Amino acid sequence: MSARIWSILLCLWVIYTLFDVTRGWKKIPRMSLGIPHTKSQRNYSTHFYKQQIDHFSFGNQSTYLMRYLVSDQHWNRTGGPIFFYTGNEGDITLFCENTGFMWDIAPEFKAMLVFAEHRYYGESLPFGNASYLPKNMGFLSSEQALADFATLITYLKSTIDGAADSPVFSFGGSYGGMLSAWFRMKYPHIVVGALAASAPIWQFTGLTPCHTYSQIVTKDFSNTSSSCAESIRKSWKAINQLGSSAAGRDFISKTFVLCHPLKNQSDVDGLKSWLTDVWGNLAMVDYPYPADFLAPLPASPIKVVCSHLTDATLPAKLLITALAKAVFVYANYSGQAKCIDTSQAATGDLGDFGWYYQTCTEMIMPMCSDGEIDMFEPSPWDFKAFSAGCMKQFGVMPRLGWIQTMYGGKNITTASNIIFSNGDLDPWSGGGVLRNLSDTLVAIRITNGAHHLDLRGSNKNDPQSLIDERNQERNFIRQWITRNETIAKKWRYKDKFSAMRGGA
Fold it and tell me: Which of 174, 214, 235, 379 is an active site residue?
């Protein structure tokens, strides 16, 4: 069988199994949203570094090629800082294109930019086209990814002229923000500080209530319009009512212009799962200006969505009609889609598959809703059922509590030089660090800010509060880099003086 045919068959298997397992299985939503592929607006070069597949076994010498991107057009080649992006669960070029804050501040800091791709995503596949076979996925973890980042930085500093003494500051948003914070905690000798934007490092069992995410999403909608949130709350009953008959399913399918008409209850459940993700995604990207972070959307998209949901007392069919119009703001704002495809697998983004594996091993972030204090259909957190789904799909059992053991949970005050930024509109902020833990573990709250809004590039519609908060981040970055350089110079002077005395 040719390599091309094998690749196609494997991709089809991954897409089929991903679609199959997520139907009826309560999955943890992706934190980083899919970003449309657009023509590059950034000036960078692409490189590959030979990494160990297993950093923690001396018996496994297998390697793979890790992709990373570099922009050094503004870099001071005599020890200027390196701004290092800790890659998320996706193609690194997407995060490179959309992390405008790093590009905005690179000239003033005379910094080199490095965007490192997370293993098992994009082109950094340890086993090539076979990377997503269950037997090959055991090396997909945050610990292995952090080791990748550490060894890559060590390599860069030892091979790039002028970089040996360059201080490294890490940046990341969402899961990448969690990695950025953990990177500073685990490798403080590698990075002098970290900006962890929208990083819910406490969104784990025993640290944050499971309903927090759903409540924040609901608050975003209800603050825009109480009838909007109430319409969504009542829509689940309407969908269940109509979805119980063939005629009702046909009505829903035609009203939503679904690419794949609803044929049975399983399809109805799939639609409800997709809608749940839609409302959460809208809360994440409720930016004050038009953006295409996951799809072309208007400014303040929740406000536009809610303009279609003004009457929660409508009968079932009229409510579903209004709901469809609201959803089209998210799913077809450009008007170019011929039908609405509710299958995540249809995007062809295999990053979903890798993320679901990670949530089945260490990234276990409980999610629940009750339909009373939130606008979602009641859905309790059932760890036993969740674990059964993980075992069925990947042959693994979630390691409950491992993240707290590895990274400290809420006992992180021995760490330093980390900025935790969170927007109050972002549903993931409930699992983030929202208050200062020390002088060097600082929390920045972004008023009316959505998911890692501060990491996006500057925009003429940025509110003054966001501008001020970005300036705070600049000040901490400059302060910690300067402090590191002062300490480094002091020790270099001592080493030089000791060498001179020894030589005498």
Answer: 174
Question: Where do the H-state alpha helices sit in 99-208?
Answer: 100-109, 142-159, 175-186
Task: For residue 279, give the 3-state DSSP assignment.
Answer: helix
In this structure, the strands spanning 418-423 and 45-52 are unpaired
Enter the tokens of residue 468. Answer: 């001020």
Which residue is catalytic, options 91, 220, 349, 426? 426
Q: Structure tokens of 383?
A: 């760890």
Q: Are strands 418-423 and 441-446 parallel, antiparallel or unpaired?
A: parallel
> Rounded to two decimals, what is the model's pTM?
0.91
452 labelled catalytic: no
Counting Cα atoms < 13 Å in the Cβ hemisphere of 216 gives: 27
Is the pLDDT at 440 greater than 50, yes or no? Answer: yes
Residue 264, classified by CB atoms within 10 Å of its CB into exposed (0-12), middle (13-18) or buried (19+), is exposed
Active site residue 174: yes
Strands 82-86 and 168-173, by their bridges, are parallel
SS3 of 69, please? strand
The string of pLDDT tens digits covering residues 7-61 is 444 444 444 444 444 444 566 777 765 544 455 679 999 999 999 999 999 999 9
Residues 370 and 323: their CA atoms lie apart, in Å, by 20
From the list 451, 452, 454, 462, the catalytic residue is 451
**Coil, strand, or helix at residue 314?**
coil
Residue whose entry in the numeric block shows the structure tokens 């204090």: 373
Give the C-alpha separation, 428 to 178, whole Å.
12
Whole-number Å distance between alpha carbons of 288 and 474? 22
